[in-house]
Design a protein that fits this description.
Blueprint: E1 15-19, H1 27-43, E2 47-51, H2 53-56, H3 65-79, E3 86-90, H4 96-107, H5 110-114, H6 117-123, H7 132-135, H8 137-146, E4 152-154, H9 160-176, E5 187-189, H10 224-233, H11 252-265, H12 269-276, H13 281-307, H14 310-339
Parallel strand pairs: 1-2, 2-3, 4-5
Helix pairs in contact: 3-13, 4-8, 8-9, 10-13, 11-12, 11-13
This protein binds adenosine-5'-tetraphosphate.
């Protein structure tokens, strides 16, 4: 037996990420992931951005799935994902995702999936009534990434555990099939302001599309009045803003609003508090609303313009799907050979 360390992955760097079309996107999706999708186009030649419609039906069936898919595509484009540089496509249009997910279902261990906190959060007290798809969500996510041998994955902090599982699955596949270096171990890109945006009503819950209260989130399609109203009604406490970051401890709603302000204005939390420490929410909230409106209004306008032309959106998605399929096909051919399927 050789004492040499296993061969590391030596392929090209490639970015992959996706969002679920469970509805239109919100500020958390934007600051946690979409801003990074756009920035990474500068540093990586190869960026693949998926709309994960098969994931979107794991928690509940979606009556408006195709329309929500176009909404998410419009949000990607409006935020600055450029289809001349990056692939934008729909997960269900590339069957290689689910084909690889099946193999990963046979590589991943039950215990690994049972530790996933997102499943516990979404399944709640009645896990036995959840769909099997919700339980195996992370193996499909690993397949989404690895069917392109993606090396870097921009996501919000809530997806960190799933990314670690993707790395474990890649490593176990490489080991089990004696194929060292075949799959890369994808690296999460999580840092930065906005990695975790919380609900406007409850600072202990993340901002989420599936929160029943629309007041809990800023939607990318919200107009200026809706944004101003939601910020005005956002939960705070009766005390002024603290002067230091340490003063935010135990004030999650305040920390969230200051974090949002810092992320959209491009300053650090400490800098924001230097300007706003000691002042009350009567002054801070309108400034926050103005900053959000300045940042999001052009995106909302562009989403509306794009949504008026579904033919253009569909053409971009179709072309992206064909290119994605062309990247995945030879990788899947290798996977089938490595696993030993008949051909
Ligand atoms: N609150 C958040 N703060 C920062 N990042 C967030 N993301 C989601 N919520 C926040 C990031 O957005 C990307 C897309 O998420 P997703 O559509 O795959 O699903 P999710 O993480 O489950 O987001 P939602 O909004 O909570 O959707 P539902 O309610 O349908 O489950 C991911 O990179 C995620 O980290």
């Amino acid at each position: 037996m050789s004492d040499n360390p296993p061969a590391p992955y030596a392929g090209p760097k490639r970015v992959f990420s996706g969002m679920q079309p469970t509805s239109g996107l919100h500020l958390g999706n934007y600051l946690g992931a979409l801003v990074k999708f756009v920035d990474l186009q500068k540093d990586f030649d190869d960026c693949i951005y998926c709309i994960v419609d098969q994931h979107a039906i794991t928690a509940e069936l979606q009556p408006n799935l195709a329309e929500n898919t176009r909404d998410v595509a419009a949000a990607y484009l409006a935020a600055g994902v450029d289809p001349r540089k990056s692939l934008i496509f729909v997960q269900s249009a590339v069957p290689a995702h689910t084909e690889l997910a099946w193999i990963f279902n046979c590589v991943a261990r039950m215990g690994w999936l049972q530790r996933m906190t997102q499943f516990k959060d979404k399944a709640g007290k009645h896990a036995e009534r959840s769909s099997v798809g919700l339980f195996t969500y992370p193996t499909l996510m690993a397949a989404d990434i690895l069917v392109y041998k993606a090396t870097h994955v921009p996501v919000g902090e809530d997806q960190k555990q799933h990314l670690e599982l993707s790395r474990d699955i890649a490593q176990k596949f490489n080991n089990d099939f004696d194929a060292e270096g075949f799959f890369p171990l994808p690296e999460p890109l999580i840092q930065g302001p906005g990695a975790r945006i919380m609900s406007l009503r409850d600072g202990s819950k993340k901002m989420s599309k599936s929160d029943p209260s629309d007041q809990s989130r800023i939607n990318l399609s919200d107009d200026a009045d809706a944004i101003a109203n939601k910020i005005k009604r956002a939960t705070t406490d009766p005390h002024p803003l603290p002067e230091t970051v340490e003063g935010l401890a135990g004030r999650p709603e305040v920390e969230n609003l200051v974090g949002i302000f810092a992320a959209v204005t491009g300053v650090s939390t400490a800098e924001a508090l230097r300007d706003w420490g000691g002042k009350g929410f009567g002054a801070f909230k309108p400034a926050l609303a103005d900053a959000l409106i300045a940042r999001l209004a052009p995106i909302a306008g562009e989403i509306r313009r794009l949504r008026a032309d579904p033919v253009q959106i569909d053409a971009i998605l179709r072309e992206g799907g064909e290119k994605a399929q062309a990247i995945a096909a030879p990788i899947m051919a290798d996977v089938r050979r490595i696993v030993g399927f008949w051909r």
